[in-house]
Write a structure and sequence with these properties.
With 271 residues, this protein is an alpha+beta fold. The protein contains five helices and eleven strands, in the order βββββααβββαβββαα. It starts with a strand and ends with a helix.
Length: 271
């Protein structure tokens, strides 16, 4: 006999279901829909399909590491020490008004990677959770309640009266831990789209580029000074000398820019 603390209505078919003690996830006995039971709200439990294996997710991570904002050869030198796979819970709100429809996502549990809030879920990738199709141990249980998520929504300037749909969505992620020069970093690969999310990574040092910026300013100021000196050497009248200096300045700038561009290119390749 099932011990229940309450009855809840299925958000899909409206049928009443018994809620076993301490149970948050259940399946509607009438239509088979997955249900998540918060103390204050009953919502549909959805899941995003996983389209990447661990190997293909790592390939996406390596390509991300090879990007322009990361240190040279990070994709080759980073050593992956651990990989975890899980389904991360997000509160999913769909707001509708006369002009548009918007989707808002809020993590349903704590995370160190704040970039995860920027995730985009294509509508076609959502499907109802079926217990028999998944390993329940891979699903993180939410600890951010529905009321807290609604408060966040209000703070974001959303009128709750325009919220047409509220769901709990679990999104598949591979969490990679990797080491680079004695430091450990974390990156998430969203296993539906393959997009990489991270807060901190080994970035290129800005010092060489700041030095180049300072050198560039000095060189162009020097070229300006030289052009006006030459102008005054050609013509003593100030107004004519200034015009001559401006005409001389352009080719001097071009001559100065060529070696600066070459040096900057080699610095970018080395850093």
């Amino acid at each position: 006999m099932i011990q229940s603390i309450d009855k809840v209505k299925c958000p899909q078919c409206g049928a009443e279901n018994d809620v076993p003690i301490d149970e948050k996830f259940l399946e509607c006995a009438y239509c088979g829909s997955a249900i998540y039971v918060d103390k204050r709200k009953v919502v549909t439990h959805l899941v995003v399909a996983c389209n990447f294996t661990k190997q293909t997710a790592e390939g996406n991570l390596r390509r991300w590491m090879a990007g322009n904002f990361h240190v040279k050869d990070l994709d080759k030198l980073a050593q992956i020490s651990q990989v975890n796979f899980y389904y991360f819970p997000m509160w999913y709100f769909k707001s509708k008004d006369t002009a548009s429809e918007k989707i808002y996502l809020e993590p349903a549990t704590s995370t160190s990677v704040s970039e995860i809030k920027k995730i985009n879920i294509p509508a076609g990738s959502l499907k109802v959770y079926k217990e028999k199709e998944y390993n329940a141990s891979e699903f993180i249980v939410p600890d951010v309640m529905y009321d807290s998520a609604q408060s966040w929504l209000q703070q974001s300037g959303v009128n709750l009266d325009t919220v047409a749909e509220s769901d709990l969505v679990h999104i598949p992620f591979y969490q990679f831990y990797y080491n680079f020069k004695g430091q450990q970093y974390t990156a998430l690969v969203e296993a539906s789209s393959g997009k990489v999310y991270a807060n901190v990574w080994p970035a290129k040092s800005e010092a060489p580029f700041r030095v180049m910026f300072g050198v560039g300013i000095f060189v162009f100021l020097l070229m300006s000074l030289i052009s006006f000196v030459i102008g005054f050497m050609i013509e003593r009248r100030a107004e004519v000398a200034l015009v001559s200096g401006e005409m001389i300045k352009v080719p001097l700038y071009i001559l100065a820019a060529i070696p600066l561009i070459i040096i900057a290119y080699f610095i970018a390749k080395k850093v």
